[in-house]
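Sequence only, no structure available. Ideas?
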Amino acid sequence: MLFRSSSRDITRLANEVFAMPGRLAADRKRTVVIALDEFQAIDGFDGGSVEHALRAAAQHQRQVGYVFAGSEPSLMERMIGPRRPFYKAGPIMRLQKIPEDVFAEFIEARFGKSGLRPEPGLGAAIVDLAGNLPYDVQRLAHETWDDVRAAGSRKVGLDDLHATLARLLGEQETIFEAIWQRLTLAQRAVLRAVVVQGGRTLLGSDVRARHRLGGPSSIQASLTALVKQDLLIKDGSRYLVIDSLLREWVARRTY
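Reply:
I predicted one. Tokens follow.
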């Protein structure tokens, strides 16, 4: 027999769960810190009632600190907007990227500590291919490490990295193709241009002619749509593809 939870049941359960940190802090007579990663996912629960329940609990728990983190910028921005429960709920921190040379050195050091001898420049290549996004850098580094260890090798180089990248792109083919198919022709053209141009000078007449992008207003509309879909992010004056694997897929498969 199947049971279907009502909105009232979900709200009641959410209130009970979110009251627990406050009770724990009071019982232990200690400050409690709750860190919630990928916080934007809460937006998908029961039309926002869970989000309201968490905000109501958090604002009354003086001995509980909350850290909300997320990897989808546009969703996180919307969650702190004027009509949302967490509007002005606390300070906002936008983390800057880890310096590429520091990240590259760290990766190569970790390969070395695991018993693999990295080829010079491997760390920098991983950081570059992954767009210096921590999750993507760690994913690509770990998958490469895993493949090399499985092969029984004691060295890891650029050929190993690109073999792993090719495997990952093959595994994501169906997902990326579905994303591509749901885009309009104008959005596809702009996404291609972002990849080729590195996200710069997209409104220039030569770039528009080279990629057949149409007028500036059409380009801007496509950019806005791609940002809302969390495919692109604006970084200063340039646009970047958020998923580095999708960027490589577009670069390799659509020309």
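The longest strand covers residues 32-36.
Hope that gets you unstuck.
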